[in-house]
Amino acid sequence: MRNAVATAFFAAGLAFSAAIPAGAQTVVDGSAADLNPALVRSIQTLVTRDFKAPAEAQFRGLHLSKSRNGHGYCGEVAIGPTASYVPFHAILEPGGTSSLLLLSDHGGSVEDRDVATRLLTNFGCVE
């Protein structure tokens, strides 16, 4: 079962990686060392899908989340080298379905930001 999931992530990563220029996005702290490179590219593609300059994004703190389905990943992303890091939770299902919770997406109301922060805390993405 574990190999099937890894193979599905690898295939999804190959599909997503075509959208990212090689070596364009950086994991600055080495936290992706234990993750499959194709999976990391899939996470990066999902997280930066709405960025104006996704190639400039920098990542840190990538790790498996506490989500029950086992397909969630936490980390932080900065839009560029001088930007602040923002926490995120990405879910990449083997069937190709994905979802993203990016804290900066929920800056509108205090209630929305509080809910997003609680979710990110429960997933183990923020303390």
Please provide a written account of the structure.
The chain has 127 residues and is of the alpha+beta class. The chain contains 3 helices and 5 strands, in the order αβαββββα. The chain has helices at 2-17, 37-47, 110-122, and strands at 26-27, 58-64, 72-78, 86-92, 98-102. Strands 1-2-3-4-5 form a 5-stranded mixed beta sheet, covered by helices on one side. The model is unreliable at 1-23 (pLDDT under 50).
Short synopsis of the structure:
This protein is an alpha+beta fold. It is globular. The protein contains 3 helices and 5 strands.
Features:
disordered N terminus; alpha+beta; 5-stranded mixed beta sheet; globular; single chain; 127 residues
Radius of gyration: 14 Å
Mean pLDDT: 81
In sequence order, what are the helices and strands, one letter per element?
A: HEHEEEEH
Q: Strand arrangement, largest sheet? A: 1-2-3-4-5
Q: Which helices and strands appear, and what pairs or packs with what?
A:
Blueprint lengths: L1 H16 L8 E2 L9 H11 L10 E7 L7 E7 L7 E7 L5 E5 L7 H13 L5
Parallel strand pairs: 1-2
Antiparallel strand pairs: 2-3, 3-4, 4-5
